[in-house]
Amino acid sequence: MTFQDTDKATSDLDNLWKRFCNELTIRIGDDPVRTWFHSLRPIRLDPVREQFVIAVPGAFHLEWLQSHYVEPVTECAQRVLGNGFATVFEVGSGDWHKSNSPELTEAKRNSEPTISAITAKPPVKRATVQSLKIDPDFCFETFVAGEENRLPRSAAMAVAQSPGGNRFNPLLIHGGVGLGKTHLLHAIANLSMQTMENCHPVLTNAEQFTSDFIRAVQHDKKLDFADQYGDSDILLVDDVQFFMGREQTQRQFFHTFNTLINAGKQIVMTSDRTPKELDGLEERLRSRFSQGLVVEVMPPEYETRVAILRVWAERDGVKLPVEVEDFLAAHITSNVRNLRGAVIRLLAIASLEMSELSVAVARRTLHDLLSKPQIAVTVDRIIEIVSRYYRLAPELFSSKSRKQPLAEARMIVMALSCELTGLSLAAIGARLGGRDHTTILHGRETIREKAEHDPEFNRLLEQFKREAEHGITI
Ligand code: ADP
Ligand code: MG
């Protein structure tokens, strides 16, 4: 090494030391840095052992540093030097001769220098994959399962309680959109962390996995990639159908999958279709998916939908009137996501308009979400339902009689026919014994008015409508 090289190395070391002390001042303040660090001297930077070696005047000084400043020193060294370097403090090192500290004299008296590492070498950090955020609201307490979803729920709970150590590995949850697959995945992550200390679930989805993989390829860390998931006790992968057609990623996923399963780790996946229907996915991947447990989430039944609405109402701190609850559960049948969307919209509109939560508001604002009638509603069908309720013969509805309760029941048929059949007033009149369109209009208005003032009556009308449209018997 030439004189100049040595000189340069010293000035590099001094610069490093200055930067280190500046960082430290930001962390712990001026006074402690002046008291405990200004009398230290940087000795060398050892790139082979990855050590930053600093001379300390005496044993007491070293002890004090060790008991008070390990954490900030480690952190600041990492900032200045990057990951991987350990900071090593040496007492009685040869370079110390520039100092006049009295402690030095004491240290020098020790013939052998005491060497002590104050900071353990920080582990070289691999860019381990990040879990997507786990939503604490998506837990088992808020997942309502009727008979139809008992199996997926219990399988998910079993997995969360003993990840890897059960027969359900991998667990594949499949089913239509908005039926709670993602919710269950988060619930597993949440419960596993509650059940086991230090449990580290990693939640991802096919999109995220793919983009992590592409990043790994770009940085040429492909081989490490499976290892990056090695820290996770449970790997939860949402929407694996998005792997279809991505061959490279599939191959990598297969590799990761095998590594984890062989290490006794748990894998849970969701998909919007069965493994069989996942065409565009390698056969060996599909067959591995099927080796554990495959469960399907089903659309909830009417009763479950009501129960879900009640759980939400409690969580949202609102009270849904029974008839609104009934209306939503009866009309929003497609999936739970739409049901949730409907509740949120309804609450928003009711609060904006400062109106009551009512069936009328729900009908008006949610029309795009309401399930299309499963049964074509005809005047005859309405007569059949209303006549059954009032125990009247259906033929009487076309008669001239104005006796009660027939007259009112007939007006109900008029009102419901206007609302549900799409027929003109005249056509409805024709079906009801050739009545005039003004009679139908009058009947409809009378019923509307009564419903506005009489909630019980309104509820009855809603039940009729539900039965007419969805065949749900009262
Ligand atoms: P998927 O992933 O199957 O498309 P999500 O899990 O995203 O569906 O569910 C959509 C919404 O419906 C979420 O707000 C979720 O909390 C809710 N949800 C679905 N199923 C249920 C259920 N059984 N109980 C309570 N909430 C549910
Ligand atoms: Mg989902």
Tell me the radius of gyration.
Answer: 36 Å
Regions with little confidence, pLDDT below 50 for 5+ residues? 97-114, 123-127
Q: What is the general shape?
A: elongated
In terms of DSSP E residues, the strand content is 5-15%
- Mean pLDDT metric: 84
Largest beta-sheet characterization: 5 strands, parallel
* Widest sheet, order of strands: 6-7-8-5-9
Element string (H = helix, E = strand):
HHEEHHEHEHEHEHHEHEHEHHHHHHHHH
Structural class: alpha/beta
Ligands bound here?
adenosine-5'-diphosphate, magnesium ion
Structure at a glance:
This protein has 474 residues and is an alpha/beta fold.
What does this structure look like?
It contains 20 helices and 9 strands. With 474 residues, the chain is an alpha/beta fold. The strands form 2 sheets. A 5-stranded parallel sheet has the order 6-7-8-5-9, sandwiched between helices. It has a 4-stranded mixed sheet with strand order 1-2-3-4. Strand 7 (234-238), helix 10 and strand 8 form a beta-alpha-beta unit. It starts with a helix and ends with a helix. The model is unreliable at 97-114 and 123-127 (pLDDT under 50). Magnesium ion is lined by residues 181-182, 238.
Fold topology:
Blueprint: H1 3-28, H2 30-36, E1 41-46, E2 51-56, H3 59-68, H4 70-81, E3 86-91, H5 102-109, E4 114-117, H6 150-161, E5 171-175, H7 181-195, E6 201-205, H8 206-218, H9 225-228, E7 234-238, H10 247-262, E8 266-271, H11 283-289, E9 293-297, H12 302-316, H13 322-331, H14 336-353, H15 359-365, H16 379-390, H17 406-420, H18 425-431, H19 437-453, H20 455-470
Parallel strand pairs: 2-3, 5-8, 5-9, 6-7, 7-8
Antiparallel strand pairs: 1-2, 3-4
Helix pairs in contact: 1-2, 1-4, 6-7, 12-13, 13-20, 16-17, 16-20, 17-19, 18-19, 19-20
